[in-house]
Amino acid sequence: MLPDLKLVIRLQEIDNLLGDLRREIAALPKHIAEIEKKLVSHERKLEADRAALAANQKERKKCEGDIQVQEQKISKLKDQMLQAKTNEVYRAFQNEIEFCQKEIRKSEDRILELMGESEPLEKNVKAAESALKTEKADVDAEKKQARERTQADEKSAAELETERAAIVPGMSAAAYQRYERARKARRGIGVAEAIEGRCSACNMAMRPQFSQELKKGDEIMVCESCQRILYYNPPVSLEDLTGEAAPAVTE
């Protein structure tokens, strides 16, 4: 195989790896942003549950305060009843006391309702706090892994860039320009293997004469359809693998 062709194939391998690394480096911040967005959503839900529980507790305290106010009124009304001089005044005080007692019962009933509502709210808050704590730990761990992965990817990319920069000067300008032209025109793939008389990239069949010329390996050739640089890997024989002659087949 021509030296330029070997270098072109290696360039393609490097560019493929660099493309994968760059996509992963670009994707990691987006992934972190997505999980952080999800975390914020859960935090807002927890705050809403906490606010509902706080409102419940606030209303219960108000009802308890209303009961105390009504009880104080009843105590004063009873003291005043003792000084009533007529039945009408006495009955008026009784009516006032009955009204206060009804208000107390309303407040007591509401407190019972609020207590029933508070139980699931408290459970929701505790469950959400526990889940959020676990999720925050998971997110922090994932962010750490993402940072470490990004650093590793950037290091690998820098090493590949260094290798690529070292390869290019060893190639002929024509071979490099042909590779770059095909790579940029064909979504990053500028080299393809010829397999069974076809370009493995565009799958177009090669002319028999073209195929024979390619197998000779005397010059760099490009696919007549997609203009990618083509290379041919001859099949490996058993003799090549073992270093020994293949056994003769007897009938």
Verbal overview:
This protein is mainly alpha-helical. Helices cover 75% and strands 5% of the residues. The chain has a 4-stranded mixed sheet with strand order 2-1-4-3. A hairpin with a 2-residue loop joins β1 (191-195) and β2 (198-199). The longest helix is centred in the middle third of the chain and has 81 residues, at 87-167. The two termini are 37 Å apart. The mean pLDDT is 90.
Outline of the structure:
Helix content is 75%, strand content 5%.
List keywords for this structure.
251 residues, mainly alpha, Helix Hairpins, 2 domains, four-stranded mixed beta sheet, 5 helices, 4 strands, 75% helix, rod-shaped
- Relative helix content: over 70%
N- to C-terminal distance: 37 Å
Tell me the domain tally.
Answer: 2
Q: What is the CATH-assigned architecture of the largest domain?
A: Orthogonal Bundle
Q: What are the low-pLDDT stretches, counting only 5+ consecutive residues below 50?
A: none
CATH fold title of the largest domain: Helix Hairpins
CATH class of the largest domain: Mainly Alpha
Q: Strand order across the biggest sheet?
A: 2-1-4-3
The profile of the biggest β sheet is: 4 strands, mixed
* Number of helices in the DSSP assignment: 5
Structural class: mainly alpha
Return Rg in Å.
42 Å
Secondary-structure element order, N to C: HHHEEHEEH
Mean pLDDT: 90
Q: What is the total tally of β strands?
A: 4
